[in-house]
Design a protein that fits this description.
alpha+beta, ECO RV Endonuclease, Chain A, 11 strands
């Protein structure tokens, strides 16, 4: 494992900070992405920015490149010039990780034919009132199970005739990935805290600046 991501899991002070702060920051993300009590699709982007900010905090802004072309669907950023994919999922059961978001069935099939794991993955499992975690899944681990399961067991296409939201990693594959001995994890207790923070507060504060 050559990725600098592993340094996060070796830093005891940062590990404790992640356990304490990640649920609160994701709670604020939900507040920002909610309207009339419902969380919008933009929640994924807000969560991603929180994780990018974690990497900048740990490694420095000069070592985190987020200027990634849209032609790189799996890569969300580069850390020390190495591509990284950021994924977040919600719920007690691991599943539903999107490899690509598309409503086009033909594009989904084309993606299946061309897909091959290409970068390390940083995965967050959000499980409110329960245990979730932050996982580092190295590229070599993904490749191992992709070859072992073959693409039709590693990748789940949306069902025909439905309103597909994307192509996913199967639950079987994901279970194998996170339980591999080379995967690093930080278990997180996902508790909400009482907060009076408004989703508009930071924008109001910026308007108040001279």
């Amino acid at each position: 494992m050559s990725s600098q991501l592993i340094e996060i899991f070796k830093d005891n002070e940062l590990v404790n900070k992640i356990k304490k702060r990640l649920p609160y920051l994701f709670q604020l993300a939900e507040l920002e992405a909610s309207r009339a009590g419902k969380i919008g699709m933009e929640i994924g982007s807000v969560r991603e920015r929180i994780l990018v900010a974690l990497l900048i905090y740990k490694f420095g802004e000069q070592n985190v490149d987020t200027n990634i072309p849209i032609t790189k669907p799996e890569t969300d950023l580069k850390l020390f010039n190495q591509p990284i994919s950021i994924k977040t999922i919600s719920g007690k059961n691991l599943g539903g990780i999107k490899l690509i978001w598309t409503v086009d069935a033909q594009k989904a099939k084309e993606f299946l034919e061309k897909y091959y794991p290409s970068c390390d993955m940083l995965l967050v499992q959000v499980n409110w009132n329960g245990i979730g975690g932050l996982y580092y899944i190295p590229l070599e681990v993904q490749v191992k199970y992709f070859k072992k399961l073959r693409k039709n067991s590693y990748i789940k296409l949306p069902k025909a005739g439905t309103n597909p939201r994307g192509v996913e990693i199967t639950k079987e594959a994901l279970s194998l990935l996170i339980n591999d001995r080379n995967v690093k994890s930080i278990l997180v207790q996902w508790n909400r805290v009482e907060t009076n923070t408004s989703s508009y507060k930071r924008w109001v504060d910026l308007w108040m600046e001279d």
